[in-house]
Amino acid sequence: MIFLGIDYGEKRIGLSFGDELGLAVPLGAAAQKTKKERVAHIGKMIEQRKITDLVVGYPLNMDGSAGFKAQEVDVFVGLLEKRFGLPVHRADERLSTHQARSDMKKTGKKANRKSGEIDSRAATVILQDFLDERILT
Q: Which of 9, 10, 31, 90 is most exposed, with the fewest beta carbons within 10 Å of its own?
């Protein structure tokens, strides 16, 4: 299986890549101007990297409940399923952006929000957690 990790955002969509070896790595974010262009970018990544499964960060509240943002992600997941016909796995994304920022600070790298780098690093955290869980079970 070959996975594309996705951290959904209204303006930028973070992307990461991983496979059964169990290591997630960041890809360039889908940061195009329109949602249609961002989804097309995801399609290119799916094709280029021969993706078999999508792992989408699911924004649960800290108490584990699904709120308004989770509903937005549900709509986005529906779009992905319809457009690409691949299995989509929802993965808990609580604190993924916080962890991505923290990891960047540790390396001394400054985050440029508009570049989508934080978003792709968050997608990497989400995908890595998903892969780790699959390997341990």
A: 10
Provide CB contacts within 8 A for 34, sequence distance 6+: none
Helix (H) or strand (E) holding 96: helix 96-106
Per-residue pLDDT, 115: 62
pLDDT along the chain (137 residues), means of 10: 94 93 92 94 97 94 80 95 96 66 60 69 92 75
Q: Which of 27, 5, 1 is nearest to 127 (CA)?
A: 5
pLDDT at residue number 61: 75
Distance of CA 43 to the CA centre of its chain: 14
Residues forming beta bridges with residue 26, ordered by sequence position = 16
Domain of residue 79 covers 2-136
What's the number of domains the chain is made of? 1
Q: Across the chain, which distance is largest between two alpha carbons, in Å? A: 41
Query: Tokens 């509903």 — which residue?
Result: 71
